[in-house]
């Protein structure tokens, strides 16, 4: 594996993991009022399209990183609806 | 341009634009208490790595979409620090 591939994997790891601190914060505080549900709906729409793109291109890293990001961000949407004030 | 390329561009457009509803919400409400700054710092780190990856690969779409996402998410970080409670 070359340096460029390692760089791409590191980039993917960071953009995929980004939602984890937000999940952690929502989980701890149970407060999500200022978080935009729209952000996460647009995001999982895009991630879903990336998964389809990865399947068509038979590109495992694109499928894997976007698949994981899709699951993590879907869980954040679940937390938003669980904790939002009625 | 083939359908696969159009799909990739659509996917990139959605994941790049995702932060816009969050920027809009923060701008309107001036409330960012429940938003995780960590999420946006991890995200722009990853986006910065994607930009370097795009430069090395001479891949204009990767540079352009991640460059735009980097600017939008940096602006969101600015809003978080502007509006957070002291």
From TrEMBL, chains A, B:
It comes from the Bacteria. This is SemiSWEET transporter. The lineage of its organism: Bacteria, Pseudomonadati, Bacteroidota, Flavobacteriia, Flavobacteriales. It is a multi-pass membrane protein. The chain crosses the membrane at residues 6-27, 39-56, 62-81. InterPro entries: PQ-loop_rpt, SemiSWEET. Keywords: Membrane, Transmembrane, Transmembrane helix. It is found in: Membrane. It holds the Pfam family PQ-loop.
